């Protein structure tokens, strides 16, 4: 790809992640305009071929596609508010971290100012940008995503989730909850096994196998949730709860942290108290779907 | 295999799981003796070819290998205490659920009475017994395990963990913690996405991919734990904590349960407060390895 055919892109926000995004576009031959509140952060990118716009408004005008990657949605809105007149006809892709309500609000505001708007979430660390490992989620109008899919593909593995602008944020935090949960369960197990002198390296393959195995159950279990019916085909929740008590007791007996085991048991106990002891694990969706007062 | 060559086995305890164990041995052609406090539970097994021993002592004497699968370790000890004279030279495999201290105590007692003793844990539901899906963990003297490995293989995929009799219980609860954590993280994500009208079936493949992907990191992360050194090669804990705040806020904003997100963040916050904000996630092993007062 060369400068004659590649879509010009603008990157606003040159933190670690913004700089990684700009570098990926430069490397792929896209005319790349950059802007940052602290201008010096553009220096290395300019040396690599980027154009530093003097103002955010100039940056927005320089390309048909602008990627926003700033501190938070408040910074996004301040920046857009000050340049509302420059937005008509442009496409904004907001990769700033925030929540689903902020994404929907910002989408509404941008559309009112004549911009096309996609909200996104980067499930990767800056060094992974530009490789297939970097998963970048997008939500908003599908036509706007498809128009820029190949350009965005320079950044990593791009995924389209749906028209609701809040989806990228929701999938992002849901995926992170899975990531930290696998890591925490592994740390719980590692801590338990360390009390018997077992190395973390000796335990890790076992934990990996269980995590990968249970991951395979999820699509089947999802059917129970979508059907709203939880027959105990494999195991009943009250049987699980007895094993949860063993996990709590063992954690306490060997002197490791027992908070995660206790939370696991508390969620199940509440569901059993609500009459679901004879049903299967996914019935806990009812507990996960409502706040707990306590 | 036929009755002339297959090792005779005894099963004590004929709950759902004990009956499944006995059925697997009968199907594989092992002379199978059974005993249960409530004798009627043996009826179907006797019809299928099992021998019902009149007393637990007779059951222990009937085979060189006895598998115990009763309610708890208290029941194990009552049963063995009453039959201490029958134990010399026999091999006991205790698949009763319990903790690592109970396993070690019972091993010591059994060995003092002249028995060989392995402690085990069944990571499967009764209908899986007799298939490769049923993983059965064993710990205790390796020679005793090897002597009966092929007989035990009738029950499922048998694994030997080490000489410490407590290992089977510890691996068991550690694996269960992983199982419930993957399921709970998936339920958290499913609850979050449901607020945007996304079906559980639509979200499940994404959750599966994240869980399986993170599982692959564990052996590498284990090296950091075994080395006691946690350089932030991929991401620093304080960066993770900002994303954890998004998870908590999003969960609260859309009205789903936030206990799991809050626990994830609390563990990281404590580690950051202890000075580890610039290190990588596995440094949390220090938090997981000690009880939390509160």
Please describe the structure with a list of short key phrases separated by commas or semicolons.
N-(1-d-carboxylethyl)-l-norvaline Dehydrogenase, domain 2, alpha/beta, eight-stranded mixed sheet, homodimer, Rossmann fold, elongated, 294 residues
Can you describe what's shown?
The structure is a homodimer of 294-residue chains. Chain A is of the alpha/beta class. Chain A has two domains: 9-163, Rossmann fold; 171-288, N-(1-d-carboxylethyl)-l-norvaline Dehydrogenase, domain 2 (Orthogonal Bundle), CATH 1.10.1040.10. Chain A is 51% helix and 13% strand. Chain A is built from twelve helices and eight strands. The first copy, chain A, has helices at residues 16-27, 43-47, 56-62, 73-81, 100-112, 142-152, 167-194, 200-215, 218-227, 237-254, 259-276, 285-288, and strands spanning 9-12, 32-35, 51-52, 65-68, 91-94, 116-123, 135-139, 157-162. An eight-stranded mixed β-sheet of chain A has the order 3-2-1-4-5-6-7-8, sandwiched between helices. In chain A, strand 1, helix 1 and strand 2 form a beta-alpha-beta unit. In chain A, helix 4 packs parallel to helix 5 (100-112). The longest helix of chain A is centred in the middle third of the chain and has 28 residues, at 167-194. The termini of chain A are far apart. At the A-B interface, helix 7, helix 8, helix 9, helix 10 and helix 11 of A face helix 7, helix 8, helix 9, helix 10 and helix 11 of B.
